[in-house]
Specification:
Elements: E1 2-7, H1 10-20, E2 27-32, H2 35-39, E3 43-45, H3 53-62, E4 67-70, H4 73-77, H5 80-86, E5 91-92, H6 96-103, H7 105-114, E6 122-125, H8 128-138, E7 142-146, E8 155-158, H9 161-172, E9 184-188, E10 193-202, E11 206-208, E12 213-214, E13 217-219, E14 223-226, E15 231-234, H10 241-261, E16 267-276, E17 282-288, H11 296-302, H12 307-315, E18 330-337, E19 361-365, E20 368-371, E21 374-377, E22 381-389, H13 392-405, H14 419-425
Parallel strand pairs: 1-2, 1-4, 2-3, 4-5
Antiparallel strand pairs: 6-9, 7-8, 7-9, 10-11, 10-16, 12-15, 13-14, 15-18, 16-17, 18-22, 19-22, 20-21
Helix pairs in contact: 1-11, 6-7, 8-9
Bound molecules: adenosine monophosphate and glycine (GLY).
């Protein structure tokens, strides 16, 4: 069979790498892919943008692609799945209406309130004066979120009132995020430990994937601006069997049932970003309607089951009898980012030692490109150095050993991915 993956990040390199291993699959295309997928022998990059939906449909028809998997949120929010289905092409991902769970924070918050899914108290504003009044009334810390898609950068955790006021002004007045910031959600500040919990939904049933933990801030000790994610590991030790059950019954099932009640079926990856407090109370920070990046990399590196078979079953609404099996132990991904990320990343620098792969480690590419047999930086997050081991410590040491050898101009990475989990373990 033939598979087509849409996207060009680390998530898509990991998806393509995993799907290529399926005994059911003869050919994997990635549109447009990156330098890493270009180097893979059995994977072919197709030069079509993720947003050129008509061209992607034509390609899938011509090549008789058996299943298309959508990586990023933007084409999902534009209705790529609706168009593939209208053209009788098999595709895995949510339709446009369902993708609003991610593409509008206001939609997600009112959905959660309507279906009693625990989340932070909030209000939505389009008017700057009303927003300022609300901030003055609530005080700080407080969280300001652009309503629309902003590549993980539209959230500002303001530690004082002034910072919150400035954040609101930058969105409502200075259009920092364009239309995405024309409405802002202002939200109660939550404390606790964050967990990424991703399930595969077929519209009726769910199949949970292994838990993971992302590191959203740019710098060590969770300092600096929010990014798309600087590293992740799986599983998240905080998610015990009990907590796993609680997440399913308090968050995941009410979400899929709530969508059904609202007349919107959810098929695709459902990603719940959760905050867990000391008493194990769970609150939902956000929903994404796709796999996380970089969470995909450590999650898929531990997955023993055939992902293509599972996603094909899900796109046939037949996931009920499937389960996912995992390597024991842990896996981790360290993101190497380019100079100046997340603002204006510098690109076009040659990367050295980007392909030292074996059974226990793999360097997934993200913002890279292949030119004249050399690999260059082409985006903010450049590589996801991934390793597994019988313990998180073991996986972490392996990954950082590899990171030490990688070289490109201005490379930045966090040195403390997994540190908190290891400290909690002692
Ligand atoms: P989001 O895109 O909504 O997940 O927000 C990005 C990041 O901002 C989260 O991963 C958290 O680290 C932080 N964040 C979001 N909402 C809150 C909140 N209500 N309280 C504290 N931190 C938050
Ligand atoms: N790593 C967070 C996300 O993919 O949204």
């Amino acid at each position: 069979m033939k598979a087509l993956i849409i996207g060009n990040g680390g998530r898509e390199h990991a998806l393509a790498w995993k799907i290529e291993q399926s005994s059911l699959v003869d050919k994997v295309f990635v549109a447009p892919g990156n330098g890493g997928t270009a180097l893979e022998e059995k994977i072919e990059n197709i030069n079509i943008s993720v947003n050129d939906i008509d061209k992607l449909v034509s390609f899938a028809k011509e090549e008789k692609v058996d299943l298309t998997i959508i990586g990023p949120e933007v084409p999902l929010s534009k209705g790529i799945v609706d168009t593939f289905i209208e053209n009788k092409l098999k595709v895995f991902g949510p339709k446009k209406l369902a993708a609003q769970l991610e593409s509008s924070k206001d939609f997600a918050k009112s959905f959660m309130y309507r279906h009693q899914i625990p989340t932070a108290k909030y209000k939505t504003f389009t008017n700057i004066k009303d927003a300022h009044e609300y901030i003055n009334k609530e005080g700080a810390p407080i969280v300001i979120k652009a309503d629309g898609l902003a590549a993980g950068k539209g959230v500002i955790v303001a530690m004082n009132v002034k910072e919150a006021m400035v954040a609101v002004e930058s969105m409502l007045e200075d259009n920092l995020f364009g239309d995405a910031g024309a409405r802002v959600v202002i939200e109660e500040f939550l404390t606790g430990e964050e967990v990424s919990f991703i399930v595969i939904c077929d519209g009726n049933s769910i199949l949970p994937l292994a838990s993971s933990q992302d590191h959203k801030r740019l710098l060590d000790s969770d300092l600096g601006p929010n990014t798309g994610g600087m590293g992740a590991y799986s599983p998240a030790p905080i998610v015990t069997k009990e907590l796993h059950k609680k997440i399913i019954t308090e968050i995941i099932e009410p979400t899929t049932e709530g969508m059904k009640k609202d007349g919107i079926e959810f098929t695709g990856f459902l990603y719940a970003g959760l905050m867990i407090d000391k008493e194990n109370n769970i609150k939902t920070l956000e929903f994404n309607c796709r796999m996380g990046d970089p969470e995909t990399q450590p999650i898929l590196f531990r997955l023993k089951s055939d992902l293509f078979e599972i996603l094909l079953a899900a796109s046939n609404k037949n996931i009920k009898n499937y389960e996912a099996n995992w390597d024991d132990g842990s896996s981790i991904t360290i993101v190497c980012a380019s100079e100046n990320y997340p603002n204006q990343p510098k690109i076009n620098d040659e990367i050295f030692n980007h392909n030292k792969n074996n059974n226990n480690s793999y360097i997934f590419h993200a913002g890279t490109k292949l030119k004249n047999n050399k690999i260059y930086t082409a985006g903010g997050r450049v590589l996801g150095v991934t390793a597994k081991g019988d313990s998180l410590k073991n996986a972490k040491d392996r990954a950082y050993d590899l990171v030490k050898d990688i070289k490109f101009k201005g490379m930045q990475y966090r040195t403390d991915i997994g540190k908190k989990a290891l400290e909690n373990d002692q």
